[in-house]
Amino acid sequence: AVPIATQIPHAAGAGMAMNYRSEDETAALCYFGDGATSEGDFHEGLNFAGVFDAPVVFFCENNNWAISLPRERQTAADSIAQRGEAYGMMGGQVDGNDPLAVREFTESALESAREGEPVLVE
Q1: What is the pTM of this model?
Q2: Residue 53 is part of which domain span?
């Protein structure tokens, strides 16, 4: 058995703890693959982060395959990032083959998270 997405609720909880402790300059950054977005832990973690304005950036490394299942068989959404809206957070896409764009987008997402707006990055 391979646990998938189990770190996502932990990241949301860490973000909630940062709010509880009034750690305004901190944020959690959680990495996972696109297959994790079909797991219950993904939905639970993003829902809690959205409801409680947890300072978390959820970073989906999408290679368009979850083990042997293509992305279009996992979700009817046009993108993984689009799913952020359902949880009350911004979602955005960035070209993972452009490391400078990834860094810039992630820094912006972390800034938003520190201001109480969790972000889903694809």
Answers
A1: 0.95
A2: 7-121
